Amino acid sequence: MVISQTNKKLSLCFDPVFGKNDPVLTDSVYFMDDKSPIKFETLKFYISGVQLFMNTELVWREKESFHLCGTDSDNKKIHLSIPASLEFTRLTFNLGIDSLTNVSGALGGDLDPTKGMYWTWQSGYINFKLEGKSEKCKDPKKEFQFHLGGYSGPNKSLQTISLNSVYKKEIEIKVDLKQFVNSIDLSKQHHIMSLGQAAVILSQAAAKCFSTQ
Amino acid sequence: MKKIGILLLFFLIVGFKDSYELFFVPANWPKPLYDFSKNKITSQKVLLGKTLFYDPALSANNTISCANCHSQYSAFTHVDHALSHGIRDSIGTRNSPALMNLAWQKLFMWDGAINNLDMQALAPIAHPAEMSSNINDVVNKLNQKKMYRALFYNAFGDSVATGERTLKAFAQFLLTIISANSKYDKVIRKEEKFNDQEKNGYQLFKKNCASCHKEPLFTTNNFANNGLKQDTILKDDGRYKITKLPSDSLKFKIPTLRNIEFTYPYMHDGRFKKLSEVLDHYIGNISPSKTLAAELRAPIVLTSNEKVDLTTFLLTLTDKDFLFDKKFSYAGFK
Lengths: 213, 334
Fold this sequence. Notes:
- The structure holds two protein chains of two kinds.
- Chain A is mainly beta.
- Chain A has one domain (2-211).
- Chain A is built from four helices and 14 strands.
- Chain A starts with a helix and ends with a strand.
- Chain B folds into two domains: 2-179, Cytochrome c-like domain (Cytochrome Bc1 Complex, Chain D, domain 2), CATH 1.10.760; 183-318, Orthogonal Bundle (Cytochrome Bc1 Complex, Chain D, domain 2), CATH 1.10.760.10.
- A two-stranded antiparallel ribbon of chain B has the order 1-2.
- Helices cover 37% and strands 1% of the residues of chain B.
- In chain B, helix 2 (43-53) crosses helix 8 (163-176).
- In chain B, 42% of the residues are buried.
- Chain B is built from 14 helices and two strands.
- Classes of the chains: A mainly beta, B mainly alpha.
- At the A-B interface, loops of A face helix 4, helix 5, helix 6 and helix 8 of B.
């Protein structure tokens, strides 16, 4: 009971949207800037290392902070418990899994390899996964698959995202997929399944899609 | 039937527990590289790992187990197959590596693609030419089998199979596969002596081979280009594929030479069937390239007598106790 008096709840709600407010549903058709239709089938990404700042000062961080998020309704929200008196102006988190965790062997919970976010032919977590269909893709099934990962050296794809927000019971964080797919020429690039420069560039583009506005 | 099964399992666990030291560091060996603090060895987990190793249920159509390409009597490699074959007779692109002393390795596979022993099993389970399955299907299958519920319960205090538990148990069995009782080891421990030919072979080995095949593990665990001409069909770039660094082009993991008598064919693509072909390669057939190992830039010179002596020494690395130890074998279950 002591905990409920000294702690308050904080939820981070990740809402995949297309454009400003259109929520992303896996059975809906959306239109890109050039009017071409696009469908999304899978969106999964890791959020890790959640930290809260008062201006520039770190005031709170989550221990063992690894969360698999995405379009499934049960993994849209991260539930945190912070000191009741804590105020903050900014939150930061990583999009992806840090390099130490990547070399730490078999892990459980959201990091269990059965979650479909671990590469098999080359060790490492997939930080961000987006799959769907677009007529523009030069693929027999018109599919695109972006599995972005890579944890070391020039291939490191982990991105740190910093967003302004004061305390609210639930902070809504939009993930704008329109911005992401508009940054890619799907007629030239529809398939990334390994680490490298292309994965790093797309990871940077993915990080820019997160906003509290 | 059920009762017999339970009884069998009981004997299996009890018998297993009493019969062997689970993990040990042989005298004068370096510290293991595996982090045991995150996966403490227990007989129950090793037993689960061993059961998984011999279970064809890991493959998509229940036909291929790990042991198919890693058989104990050939030091856990695929004897006589240059390129290993897996499910539905599919041929892979590399020679399956021998498995031993894995706690002293940090990176796995010929190209070091795997960064932790725990994660190694994921690759052959998922490879379309090996087991063509995936860890989710494997875990689902295990959760449907009564035998595994008991094995997981004994190992983890919970009968549910997860990816993490499956992989950790797997790693535990692999960690126990230690080969350190060859004639060479006995000589080092002063329990036996080399004959004159072996003694001369050992000197030749130290002069010409030991910088890459470093004692006592007979590898530095590094990656090197040993002057093999690239196969024009396989076009295998080795470690370059993983790091994308031009300086890693044509480099492959330096394999241990322990039990080399039984791990034929040799090299990442199994191109050499006999040890004599391997020696001939190093003596006169080195293919020059930018990334060629510095040690091989000057030619290795051996007379035919010296070749025989060196081979005689290499045969002292055979560890029969290891090759036929029941604690690693399928027969050891019975």
